[in-house]
Amino acid sequence: MVLKSSSPARQLRTTGAHSRLALCCLVAALLTAGACGARKRLKGFGESARESAVSQANVVQRYRELYAKYGSQLTDVKKRAAPCAAKGQSSDMELELSYLRLRDTQPNMVWEWSPNHGLSTIFILAALADNGHGHLIAFDENQNWHDSEACIADLLENRFRFVFGDVHETFYEIEKEVGMPDYLFLDSWHSHLMGVWYTTEVLSRFTKHTYVSLHDVHNPTFWGDDRDDPSFRDRRDLKVWPSWMATEEGMTVSDWLLYRADACGVYTTAQSRWPSTYDAMNTMRTIYMYKDVREEGLHPEIQENSTLFFELLCESNSSEASH
Q1: What start and end residues bound the annotated signal peptide (predicted)?
Q2: Of the CATH numbers 3.30.750.24, 3.40.1550.20, 3.40.1000.70, 3.40.50.150, which one belongs to the domain with range 60-316?
């Protein structure tokens, strides 16, 4: 998808860095403190996740329950994905967490931006198939998802639709046709301008309780993408943007979430942000995942586990979104 960045935008990115850093620190404080009336216990990611910040202990506990419940099926999914995983760009853990969250929340409609080579698509479709219901619409300006088609051929019929083109255009067409999804999986062009478009044109359009995941929020290897300067992605100055800080796009969305009173269930298990949570997750994977899958992994070289998970319109939760 093409969203050209202009010189004024790059200037805005620089001049606004200090204010966004302050807001990011405040978001981090909320995540640490579990502020804004946190519930006594996080029973699930649906009907009980009604807090503005979810404590890390509750996140670990909930995933412990989900690994115990769905670990065997998840192992089968990873074996399914292995022949098609070579070009994937997600860590094993975040692929697993996405599958488990989809099993737990039971969405009827999922959108994915952008699947690229389709590794995450395998886990989404497998979760919907294991749930026994649900449909996936994937948006991208390339058709690389065919690289994974052999691993999901039996899951595509009546469950998958691919929309080719620039999502800045196709999004509005599909929204008009089918409405907004129950679950939105975002992993596209990572920039401040993309984050602004998400918050002003996409996330603000939901009218019902919705689950969202945004990839590469806590990825210490880069700051953001720039169409005019591809090398910008590799120039993260840790003196300016320390490893615990969200990426440019992630900070933009985090700033927006800070002022959304109806947002809840905000958490990440990123190693750069919550190393103790990351270690706890790996410990439970040792217990509940089969040894051969756990040790080999799909992409053991990728450790960032950078996804940010959150929910919107929590107070307007309906019977379709709860479980």
Answers
A1: 1-37
A2: 3.40.50.150
